[in-house]
Design goal:
The structure holds two protein chains of two kinds.
Chain A: H1 2-18, H2 28-46, E1 49-61, E2 67-79, E3 83-90, E4 94-99, E5 103-108, E6 113-118, H3 123-134, H4 141-144, H5 148-153, E7 158-167, E8 170-178, E9 182-189, E10 196-203, E11 211-220, E12 239-240, E13 242-243
Parallel strand pairs in A: 6-12
Antiparallel strand pairs in A: 1-2, 1-11, 2-3, 3-4, 4-5, 5-6, 7-8, 8-9, 9-10, 10-11
Chain B: H1 10-24, H2 31-36, H3 76-82, H4 86-90, H5 95-184, E1 218-219, E2 227-231, E3 234-239, E4 242-247, E5 250-254, E6 261-262, E7 270-274, E8 277-282, E9 285-290, E10 300-304, E11 311-312, E12 320-324, E13 327-332, E14 335-342, E15 345-351
Antiparallel strand pairs in B: 1-5, 2-3, 3-4, 4-5, 6-10, 7-8, 8-9, 9-10, 11-15, 12-13, 13-14, 14-15
Classes of the chains: A alpha+beta, B alpha+beta.
Chain lengths: ~250, ~350
């Protein structure tokens, strides 16, 4: 128990020194994870423009038993309040999405099919609207919306500060927390800018507990992102498709 | 829910806490600059998310990284921390000092040898004692580990045995289960769909396996395990979702003939529901599963006409794009499909022939 007391004392003193406004009544472990997540959220939300490369792996669990892993990658360019472009490709699909403040265009590059939706004037409102009306979920949309912190802090059952761990040569705060259905692990850059470097999501209530992993690299917070980057480029010959309303509506 | 153990060391926590202190002082927005303090990135090597785009579609596919290529720089944080030549400075003593030093050191070495000898003797005794103690400790640890391994083995063995029994029982249940599944309209389903947070990857992972031959492809001999089915007087040869007809001395891949009934379902099937009816969709064919005739037989699978309203993740091979008015469709034989986005995935819905 002396060990636990020491641990708490160290964390608490660090927090007191670093962030005196935080209430110290909470469990230090909770406090550490919560503070780290909050700082990461504030950093992401505060970014006016950035680009980042993300490598992704995800599982598919067959009924017959095999748990398969697929890989993918995406490049994200975002400029607040009203522009983003995501180029995504994995073993099964290839897509690109543009948002220019007026419309959201999705192209399935393998199928050669595109769709277009009228958009809201901001990234946040658009992410919410297309999810609500058409069940369109944007890749890593939660990470780039303004309510990121509440997304990952509500419904959390337990938290753990795991340690300082390496992500592609960068020391990162490795934290773990879970909700009723999902376990999350974040690796947050321990340097001056607490950006996410890696995220692992484990769907513990699904058969085989599939995981999705995102590894972030090439964060560019001074990216030059001119308007033409966010103008849709629809492949010649692509078919136009309507969006089906979200089922149940 | 089981909470993982927390093997946190005090050192690690202390390191984390110190790092936190630095993190809280954040002001810099230039992430690249901040990271550079740890070492250099450098180099080109633009990557592209679309390297995965693979087969087909989008003639206009372009690379994702349109801006200047950035360095992957995996080790960028390490150079600054550990570089800088710690060893080189220490290897350059002055020549004069070195000669004088040598003389002095020789005397000191002589004197210290005697001390060292006595000390070594003492150390040896100490080490021997330590070793004995260590050996005892290690022996104790080994015994504990052996016992623990033995226990683990027994547990694993028990678990495996139990799993085997469960699997055997589950196999025995299969036949009954099949009948139940057919009755419940839940026969086809070859992979669990889980809800990835972003719903961005396709919902048709099963298709990743499908590497069937293209329509019109010729093969010299039939696959080792095939069935012969006759539809309207024409013999077809079927193997794992692919149909062949004879053409001279060879066989040519053909569209699935409606009315064919096969004994073995294709390996990769997507389940499709239309008005409460369940179909298995594979390689352009819609299969209606027929319950076993009796308890000693297996279900069979009949190729049926594409049911109106069926929604599938991939078009049958040979689909042609057709524009009718302002709307894009695809036509396969006499069947019309209209593309839609369901969430962020494309689906193709069987529709009536559109009127111009």
């Amino acid at each position: 128990m002396a060990f636990a007391a020491l641990r708490r004392a160290i964390i608490s003193s660090a927090l007191v020194a670093g962030l005196p406004s935080v209430a110290l009544a909470a469990d230090p472990e909770t406090l550490t994870v919560d503070v780290l997540m909050r700082r990461m959220a504030e950093t992401l939300v505060g970014l006016q423009a950035f680009s980042v490369h993300v490598e992704k792996t995800f599982d598919d669990v067959l009924v017959t038993g095999p748990r398969l892993q697929y890989s993918g990658a995406m490049d994200i360019e975002l400029r607040r309040p009203d522009r983003f472009n995501v180029s995504y490709g994995d073993d099964l699909s290839a897509k690109e999405v543009w948002y220019d403040g007026e419309r959201l265009v999705v192209v399935d590059l393998r199928a050669g099919v595109y769709g277009e939706l009228p958009a809201e004037p901001t990234i946040d409102a658009t992410i919410d609207a297309v999810a609500e009306k058409y069940d369109v979920r944007l890749p890593l949309g939660e990470l780039f919306s303004s309510d990121l912190y509440s997304t990952f802090s509500e419904g959390v059952d337990d938290r753990m500060y795991v340690g300082l761990h390496d992500v592609n040569g960068v020391a990162a705060h490795h934290v773990w927390f879970d909700t009723a259905t999902t376990q999350y692990q974040f690796w947050i850059d321990s340097g001056e800018v607490p950006l996410p470097l890696k995220v692992v999501i484990t769907y513990v209530d699904e058969p085989g507990e599939p995981q999705t992993t995102y590894v972030f690299s090439d964060w560019d917070l001074k990216a030059d992102l001119p308007d033409d980057l966010f103008e849709p480029e629809i492949p010649g010959g692509a078919a136009r498709a309507s969006f089906l309303p979200r089922s149940g509506d | 829910m089981a909470i993982p153990s927390r093997p946190l060391s005090a050192l690690r926590i202390a390191a984390g806490a110190v790092a936190l202190l630095f993190a809280f002082s954040l002001v810099a927005v230039d992430y690249a600059e901040a990271r550079k303090r740890g070492g250099g990135g450098g180099g080109g090597g633009g990557r592209s998310a679309q390297r995965y785009s693979g087969g087909g579609g989008g003639s206009g596919a372009r690379t994702a990284n349109r801006s200047a290529p950035r360095a992957p720089s995996a080790s960028r944080n390490r150079g600054g921390d550990f570089g800088g030549g710690i060893g080189t400075k220490q290897r350059q003593p002055q020549q004069g000092d070195r000669a004088a030093g040598r003389q002095q050191q020789a005397g000191e070495r002589q004197a210290s040898r005697a001390d060292a000898s006595a000390g070594r003797q003492e150390n040896r005794t100490q080490r021997t004692d330590d070793r004995s103690q260590n050996r005892g400790d290690r022996q104790g640890e080994r015994t504990e580990r052996t016992e623990s391994r033995q226990e683990n083995r027994t547990e694993r063995s028990d678990t495996r045995q139990q799993e085997r029994t469960e699997r055997t029982e589950s196999r025995q249940e299969t036949r009954q289960q099949i009948a139940d599944d057919i009755a419940d309209g839940d026969y086809w389903d070859n992979h669990y769909d889980y809800h990835d947070d972003d719903f961005w990857d396709d919902d048709d992972a099963a298709w990743a396996f499908f590497g069937g031959l293209a329509l019109g492809a010729f093969i010299v001999s039939l696959p080792p395990r095939y069935e012969t089915v006759v539809v309207q007087g024409t013999p077809y040869y079927y193997a794992d979702g692919t149909y062949y007809v004879q053409s001279g001395s060879q066989y040519v891949v053909t569209a699935p003939p409606v009315g064919a009934t096969v004994e073995h379902a294709p390996t990769q099937v997507t389940n499709v529901y239309v008005d409460g009816e369940e179909y298995g969709y594979s390689n352009g064919a819609y299969y209606d599963v027929k319950p076993p005739a009796d308890e000693n037989s297996d279900p069979t699978f009949e190729v049926v006409a594409p049911p109106k309203g069926a929604s599938v993740p991939r078009l049958p091979e040979g689909a042609e794009k057709k524009q009718v008015g302002d709307v894009d469709f695809y036509k396969v034989g006499d069947t019309w499909y209209q593309p839609f986005y369901s969430g962020s995935s494309v689906v193709y819905v069987v529709v009536d022939e559109p009127k111009a």
